[in-house]
Structures are given as C-alpha cells and as structure tokens.
Design a protein that fits this description.
The two termini are about 20 Å apart. Among the domains are: about 100 residues, no CATH class; about 80 residues, no CATH class. It has 18 helices and no strands.
C-alpha cells in the first residue's frame, strides 16, 4: 500500500502549499507502491505534472510507458518529455523534436532533456542542420546545443567554445550542458569558464546557475572540488558566489532527468569534508573565513541549512534501516 505521504499529496483536500514538502520527502523515501499510485493518478489527470521528480527518482519504465499511452492522446505536460527520455521511451522522439522546434522555450527545454536519453539516429540530419543554422547567434533555441554531442556534430568542442563567446548570457544553458557532455576533454575549459564573471554561471535569473551545477557534476567538479579551490587560495568573488549558488542547488535538489549524471555529494560527506575546520594558519579553520566579508553571513546561513539537511538525511536513513529490520 502507498504511504501516508502519497495519500496526502494526492488528496484534493490537501493545501497545495504542502505539496513541495511532501514531494521532497517522497523523493527520498518513496516505495514502489507510492510510484504506482502516483502513476495511476497521473494517468487519470493527464494535464498534471505533480510529483514527476518522485518518478524520476523511484519510477520505472513500465510506469512511464503507461503515461506515454495517455499523453499520446492528450498531449505531453510540462516536464513530461524529460521523464519519458529518462526511461528511454524511444517512441516519443519525433514528438520531442517537434517541441524543440516549436518556439516555446519551456517545451523546447523539456524536449531537449528528453531527447538526451534517446537514440537520435533518425533525427540526426535534422538536428545537425538546425545546429548549423543557429550556430554563432546571440539568441537561439537555447537548449539545442546540448544535443550536439549525441547527434555527432563535427568539431564539437571548438565550435561550442566559440559559440559561448558569441551567445547572450541569457542563452547559455544548452552550451554549458553541451560542453559538459563532451566529457573530460572539456574539463579544463569548463574550469576556466567558472572563474570568469562574464559568463554569469552563478546567475539564477538566466538559469545559468542550474546548468553550471549540472555540468560540474557531469565533469566530476562538484561542491567538494569547489571548496578545495577556495581553501587553496583561489578566493575570487566569482567562485565564492558560485559555491553559494551550487550549495543552494544542492539544497533544492530532488531528482535528475539525465541517466548519466551522478547523484550529488551526500550531505554527510559534504559536511565532513567541505565544512570541517582546516589547519591553515592564516585562517581560523572554517571555510567561511575564506569568503569575502560581505558573503560570510550568507555562507553562515547555508552552513546551518547543510547541518539541518544532514540531520534529516541521517534520520531518514535510520527510518529506512528500521523498516528493513522489521521486515526481516
């Protein structure tokens, strides 16, 4: 049977203001019964995208294929293409590409994320032609360049790198993600970009913060790496703001739509390694002391949230272990 949390979430009497809290908890604790019940609800309410993150974390291909059978008739709701791609529902590829070309920014972003989980061989010619057409523009279909590697765009790394300098900072998401999907060859380039303020990779208004955090994880450049950069003396305001931004992304994280992206650093490891006191004689030992004075109070607030998240994570682990012991 589904959990109390799922029943509360799907109960129409529940105040919608509680939904984010219920979903975040289910992202950590949902069972197969929970995801099955959520799938039933979504099939009955095809316009809804409630609890997609729970399915991204704990769902299965069979459940998502059920949703696709419904959405083929009703239309794919926002976030649906990402979910379908995450579970490799190949049949959706033509509809996803149509959404990329629709001119709707939200639909195109969702569709690109879905296509990244699918075989693009039948769409390759169209994708390459669209990339060639939009290459070098300041404003374009923002997430399109994320498909460049999967589609086999020739000379992909130098072309994406050049395009980054030509693109508006409002239109960098697909380029950032595309560079990360190149892999290790792009790692040093991405490191350099992180420390250059002109790319605004810590900016929330453009969405660049989200994409830079995702790209960093794809390239094994996570919060632990960034904290080590700060402790090593690379204390530019840009990197400090980026650390706080990535930390905010980690606090808000619930699920990823890309199969290849590793999960974020667990709170316990992050707390022990990034927030533990060091031995640098020029500092008082805390990571906070490496930050500019005007950023230290913000760091302190986040440090408290990290501690609370660790307590919650440990508590959930204890609950899960207790439930497992009871069923042995």
């Amino acid at each position: 049977m589904e959990s109390y949390l799922t029943r509360r979430l799907l109960d129409e009497q529940t105040d919608p203001n509680l939904h984010p809290v219920l979903i975040k908890t289910l992202c950590a604790l949902a069972s197969d019964a929970d995801t099955e019940r959520i799938t039933d609800f979504l099939c009955a309410h095809p316009e809804s995208n409630l609890a997609f993150d729970v399915l991204l974390r704990h769902g299965c291909q069979k459940q998502v294929q059920r949703l696709w059978k419904v959405w083929k008739r009703s239309g794919v709701p926002e976030g649906g293409f990402s979910l379908l791609g995450r579970f490799a529902v190949q049949e959706v590829a033509p509809a996803a590409w149509e959404a990329v070309c629709s001119g709707d920014w939200f639909a195109a972003r969702d569709a690109v994320m879905g296509l990244l989980g699918l075989d693009l061989s039948e769409l390759r010619r169209e994708i390459l032609a669209r990339l060639d057409f939009e290459e070098g523009r300041s404003l374009f279909t923002e997430m399109l360049p994320a498909l460049a590697v999967r589609a086999g765009w020739p000379n992909v790394l130098p072309r994406l790198r050049c395009w980054c300098d030509q693109a508006s900072t409002d239109c960098l998401g697909g380029l950032i993600l595309g560079l990360a999907l190149v892999g290790g060859e792009a790692k040093e380039l991405f490191k350099a970009m992180l420390n250059q303020e002109r790319y605004e990779l810590d900016d929330t208004g453009t969405g660049n913060l989200h994409w830079s955090w995702m790209a960093g994880r794809l390239l094994d450049l996570d919060l632990l790496w960034l904290s080590n950069q700060l402790r090593s003396g690379l204390t530019s305001a840009t990197l400090q703001r980026l650390f706080l931004g990535w930390l905010r992304c980690r606090l808000n994280w619930q699920a990823d739509s890309l199969r290849q992206i590793p999960p974020p650093t667990p709170w316990e490891r992050l707390y022990l390694e990034a927030f533990s006191w060091g031995s640098d004689p020029d500092h008082n030992g805390s990571l906070e002391s490496y930050f500019l004075p005007e950023l230290q109070s913000e760091f302190s607030s986040y440090e408290n949230l990290v501690s609370a998240s660790l307590s919650l994570e440990l508590g959930m682990s204890r609950e899960i272990s207790g439930d497992a012991d009871q069923h042995r």
